[in-house]
Amino acid sequence: MHMLKKISFWFAFSLLNTALLLALVVTPVSTHLTNRESIKSWVSNPEVLDGVSEVVPTILSDAFEGDGNEVGLTQVSEQIIGVNLNELADASSDILTPEYITQKLYPVIDGVYDWLEGKTDSPEFNVVLSDKLTALADAVGGPLKSELAKLPACPSNLVYTPDFNPIEALCVPPGTDVNFIVDEFTRQITTSPDIADISFSSDDMEFDEELLTTAPLVYSGASNLPYVFAGVALLFSVAVVLLSKSTRHGLRNLSWIYIGNGLLVALSFWILGNTDAFVNINSAEGISPVVADNLIEPFIKIVLSDIARTGLLISLSVAAIGAAILLALYTHHKIAHEQDENSKKTTKAKKETPAPTSRQEARYLNKIAKK
């Protein structure tokens, strides 16, 4: 029977450590990823919104399919920097305001989470992205003209053609007016049939039937996972106390489990939130360095920092509970020890006090009688 109890104790001890560790790791991740408001706070972060403006010139350049400046790019001096994209980004920020960007992103987030929460059968959203294209092109046009005016003339063999891309230019084709170049560039962008009516709609996306049914189930499971691990941890916490040599011994074991796991996970989340090792994606194939540096990496860093902050708070709270149990045990032991010492002193004092003699008792009774 004693051996069976010992085996049961170590079984409960091991499962408690595992369940508590998983609960501490999964809870902050699940709490944020299953909460649409967390996603909205991430995409509306000022650093992310500023990044959107930074990548606008690159997006406009990519939208313009011209490559007529290829000859000039290979023949002009490498010391020429070219167009200052920061000037174009500052101009675009007046059009793509934070309110406008969040207005476009929030419906997509709500549409996806409504589906995951079972409110709709599939994601439903429709976002028009070209409603400010003309205003954006006009806003960028002014700084772009100023930047082109600073560039040197291209070699004589480079003649202007309609597919000349001024955003990537390192020089200006000789004999060509920069106003004409920019006006033609913005005209092509705003009138292109491919981007004149850009929209992002769930109707244009093909969803696998299995995904439509499986994803909400996975989402529901992920939402409840912290409660499952917390319940298992609580169950085996009770088991560890009951299967220990004594209640005091069991509570002491429990406190060290809480402190050890709490501090270990807290350290892990601190490292996660204070290192850039997990956000460097410049080497990812097919991703523009400008987009990676100004948009994707800041977003990932914000997400990891937020999750790490929550994980650190929860882990330290668990460690604090363990420390509180340990402190309570110490205080209880100290009080019990003092009471025991006082009891021993009282008993000893009684033993050391001599019993009154018959003569002393007689005198005492006579005094009482005279009174």
Task: Give a quick rundown of the structure.
The protein is mainly alpha-helical. Helices cover 71% and strands 2% of the residues. It is elongated and about 135 Å long.
Please provide a written account of the structure:
This protein is mainly alpha-helical. It folds into two domains: 260 residues, no CATH class; 44 residues. The chain is built from twelve helices and two strands. The chain has a two-stranded antiparallel ribbon with strand order 1-2. Helix 5 runs antiparallel to helix 7 and helix 7 runs antiparallel to helix 8. The longest helix has 64 residues. The radius of gyration is 37 Å and the shape is elongated. 24% of the residues are buried. About 4% of the residues have low confidence.
List the helices and strands and how they pair.
Elements: H1 2-33, H2 36-43, H3 46-63, H4 70-75, H5 85-93, H6 98-116, E1 126-128, H7 133-149, H8 178-191, E2 199-201, H9 209-243, H10 247-273, H11 289-352, H12 358-370
Antiparallel strand pairs: 1-2
